[in-house]
Automatic annotation (TrEMBL):
GTP-binding listed as a keyword: no
Protein name according to UniProt: Glycosyl transferase 2 family protein
Native source species: Bacteroides uniformis str. 3978 T3 ii
Domain Glycosyltransferase 2-like, chain residue ranges per copy: 7-147
SUPFAM superfamilies attached to this UniProt entry: Nucleotide-diphospho-sugar transferases
InterPro entries per the UniProt record, alphabetical: Glyco_trans_2-like, Nucleotide-diphossugar_trans
Highest taxon of source: Bacteria
GO molecular function list: hexosyltransferase activity
Amino acid sequence: MIQPKVSVIIPCYKVEKYLDRCVESVINQTLKDLEIILVDDESPDHVPEICDEWALKDARIKVIHKKNGGLGMACNSGIEVATGKYVAFLDSDDWIDANMYQTMYDTAEKHQAQMVFTGLRRVDTNGNVIGYLTHKEKFQIYEGKNEIDGLACDLVASEVSLAAERTLQMSAKVVLYSKSTIDENHLRFVSEREVMSEDMHFNLNMLSHSQCVCVVPRFFYNYRCTTGSITQKVDLDQFERIKSLYFFTLKECQILGIEENIYQRIQRFFIGYVRNYIRVVCRSKSSISEQIKIIQMIVNDPVWNIIWLSYPIHVAPLKQRLFVRLIQKKRIRILKILLKYK
């Protein structure tokens, strides 16, 4: 049996409205030598039947029906059965341009790369483009530990002084991976139910085992965004998970030997996660008193205070400086007004 060039792993859960478009975008790729793996994560809607119907239509499609375990575990189930030379991941409510995998495969083959990154478009529920996510302006090749460690730093967060939060997308769905590198190093996703941002940790581990990485500054991936929704209830455990993510990332970078400038970058991504969480709190339907209580909890947290005391806020972008200063001085009501509308 001839080995497929790319195995495309698509975790599926509660996406009956979008799954057909997603699968069609893979079937219609200009690169035809694909293996398509649909992982039904015990979806309670019609996803299981839709997956099985697609498998009857196209011999390249495999279906896994598994007990619900979350996105990371669904990706791992796909990795276990994937036979392609390369592996890609695709969210089942998104879709991709027809030449995505051909371009990434050709790039990987030409440069013998273990990873190929690309950019993505953010689209609304009607398919209208609302933004682009990539910060590499030209095609780049990274080789050797120093260059790839620098890329790993970019994945975590930008240098403190830069306006962009990061200069490389952390999402696994915009990366083509060498399957042999995954297998030889027994790489798997952590569960997002245990650690936030499972994609970043998978990518950090892949980078540490890569000799060549390419970045293609083109937009093939259409990431569906649901905008304008208001959170009914705030997840009170979210801040604790953000702290766990901070310590997990710090430890992992130390184990992987990624050292240069990484500490300040981990601080920066922690501050960014906290800012986004406070923004969610401020825009929620929780009472004003409950919102203030949550923000006060963060302001008084010892981990937060240790981080901002050592963070070089004087060289940070204006918005970040303002956010940190308001928290430092415990100007909670001003902070709430600022983040509710920004």
